[in-house]
Amino acid sequence: MLWHKHFALLIYLALSPNRTRARTHLYSLLWPDKPEDQARQSLNTAVSRLRLDLGADRLTSAGNALTLADRALHVDAIQFEAVIETDPGAALQLMSGDSATGSKCDGAPSLRTLSESRRT
Predict the structure, then answer these.
(1) Of 14, 27, 34, 106, which has the highest C-beta tally within 10 A?
(2) 82-103 burial string, b = 16+ CB within 10 Å, else e?
């Protein structure tokens, strides 16, 4: 993917409750420095690009909500939280490899901030 905010959108949706967020929430979060109409257009562009890359049925819209389909979705951060208390060894195995947590997108909160606020 060419654009960091598109990747941030994908990660944020993957970590969101039910993998769903309101479009207004998403464009306000990822493009806070743009006027509303431009932020909305930036979100639409990101969604279009992600649909091209992932398949049209992976991102669905219903009213103001945008949902990432969870079929074949593997999110190690969610798996980590699920096993850390019961199987610390399995949790450690999930920690190997690259992490996007330290990634930055100019004008948007860090992915660490996004992941910490995913339950709200």
Answers:
(1) 27
(2) eeeeeeeeebeebeeeeeeeee
SS3 85: coil
Ranges of beta strands (E only) in the chain are 20-22, 59-62, 65-68
CA dist 78 and 61 (Å) reads 23
- 70 pLDDT tier (thresholds 50, 70, 90): confident
What are 24-63's pLDDT values in tens digits? 999 999 999 999 999 999 999 999 999 998 888 889 999 9
113: number of Cβ within 10 Å: 12
DSSP 62: E
Dihedral sign for Cα atoms in the order 57, 79, 111, 33: positive
Q: Whole-prediction pTM value?
A: 0.64
Side chain identity at 38, as an amino acid letter?
Answer: Q
Close Cβ partners of 113 (under 8 Å, ≥ 6 residues apart) = none
